[in-house]
Write a structure and sequence with these properties.
By secondary structure, this protein is α/β, with parallel strands linked by helices. It is built from 16 helices and twelve strands. Helix 4 packs across helix 5 and helix 5 crosses helix 6. The longest helix has 17 residues.
């Protein structure tokens, strides 16, 4: 957003008022240019009901990796997951739609709006964008960060047929109406084009990238007390690299001082697996920390861990990892796009979750990250790409 004005586009922002689920990093608010108008609207917040149903205090933060975990055994949790999967369409932010449409109308009446850009998930944002686009005859450009109807965290969770039909109808309607569509991975674009061939002529790939300003001037060295393996961001139960925990335990038994550090939320099955391999005393769960501290932690780490779930998943943190210049250990099945990015920058390796006799640390011996190659993913360049796409909607 902060780079778009230099590319000829001046954004206004429509967003939800502070919710009771997401962690907020107030330090990032300061990066919003002062002349950008931000309209906040309230909406129905389902996670308050979720807390009450599970008997949690209203001010207790929810853990993203636990709310949809299928390893939780309690009946209340299973009921809450079923409700989330089947009654909130397209997602749990559906209750924001009415107030968002009203707030957007105020923006549109006060500002000269040439294009509507929606970013999701939550995919409710795309439904709102389509509704506003149709009503006000303004081109709509959805930015798809993740798949929609078959997003990875639905894996192993049941959705009824009616819910799927409705969700698919919403997805197709957004894709058909869009003036242009932006997707954040090549494989995700291929997947959408195979589902909706008409997208071949109006879809584009822009990687999520990183802000160079956030990394400038940081020269922190690796922590000398141990070899820290850092995972930044949420890690869910279905992303559990159990073979890797086993390898770390083996390396520790040989005297190597390897330790794990997690920033963000960690699924209960992941924690149980780490404990089962005797690594709990050598593992730190830092929880949510401000973004500037996350960046410093990247430079302190000896290795950076990520678990791209499936072939369409290129985590946004990959590009921040690349910029930090630390060797990257990635686990994912059939994810050639991540593997290719790592190879091109000689930055790390991608291994399948069950990688047999291979040793992750041996695979990393030939890795020497090239930070200069990471600079192509600077968001200044990506903002120019988005501006070029928005220019297409005016022709």
């Amino acid at each position: 957003m902060k780079h778009l004005p230099s590319c000829g586009w001046h954004p206004s922002v429509l967003t939800a008022e502070a919710d009771t689920f997401s962690h907020r990093d107030q330090s990032l608010v300061g990066e919003i240019p002062p002349d950008v108008r931000v309209e906040r609207t309230a909406g129905f917040e389902p996670f308050n009901l979720y807390r009450r149903f599970l008997g949690k205090e209203q001010d207790v933060p929810l853990v993203a990796s636990e709310t949809i975990s299928n390893s939780q055994a309690s009946l209340r949790h299973k009921i809450s997951v079923w409700i989330r999967m089947n009654l909130f369409v397209p997602d749990a932010r559906a209750g924001w739609m009415l107030s968002a449409v009203r707030g957007a109308r105020r923006l549109i009446s006060d500002q000269h709006i040439d294009a509507i850009v929606s970013i999701g998930p939550p995919h409710t944002a795309h439904v709102i964008g389509r509704r506003l686009s149709r009503k006000h005859s303004i081109p709509h450009v959805p930015v798809m960060i993740d798949p929609w109807t078959d997003i990875s965290y639905y894996k192993g969770l049941r959705r009824n047929r009616l819910t799927l039909l409705l969700d698919t109808k919403l997805e197709k309607g957004v894709m058909e109406h869009a003036a242009q569509v932006v997707l954040v991975t090549k494989s995700l674009r291929e997947d959408f084009v195979s589902k909706y061939p008409f997208l071949a002529e109006k879809s584009h790939v822009l990687y999520w990238g990183f802000n160079e300003e956030s990394f400038r001037g940081i020269r922190q060295e690796c922590d000398p007390s141990a070899e820290f393996i850092l995972h930044a961001g949420n890690i869910f139960d279905y992303q559990n690299p159990e073979h890797f925990w086993m390898e770390i335990a083996e390396e520790r038994s040989r005297g190597r001082n390897l330790r794990l550090r997690f920033i963000g939320t960690v699924g209960p099955r992941v924690k149980s697996s780490i404990q089962a391999h005797g690594l709990e005393p050598y593992t730190e769960y830092a929880g949510f920390v401000p973004y500037d501290q996350v960046v410093r932690e990247l430079f302190r780490a000896s290795y950076l861990l990520m678990c791209p779930t499936e072939r369409r998943h290129v985590p946004g943190k990959l590009f921040e990892y690349l910029r930090a210049g630390r060797p990257i250990i990635a686990f994912g099945d059939d994810n050639e796009e991540v593997a290719s990015i790592l190879r091109d920058a000689n930055a790390g390796v991608l291994l399948p979750y069950h990688y047999g006799d291979k040793k992750a640390f041996e695979e990393l011996r030939s890795v020497s990250p090239n930070i200069h190659l990471a600079l192509q993913y600077n968001r200044q360049s990506i903002a120019q790409g988005l501006a070029n796409i928005l220019d297409m909607t005016k022709r």
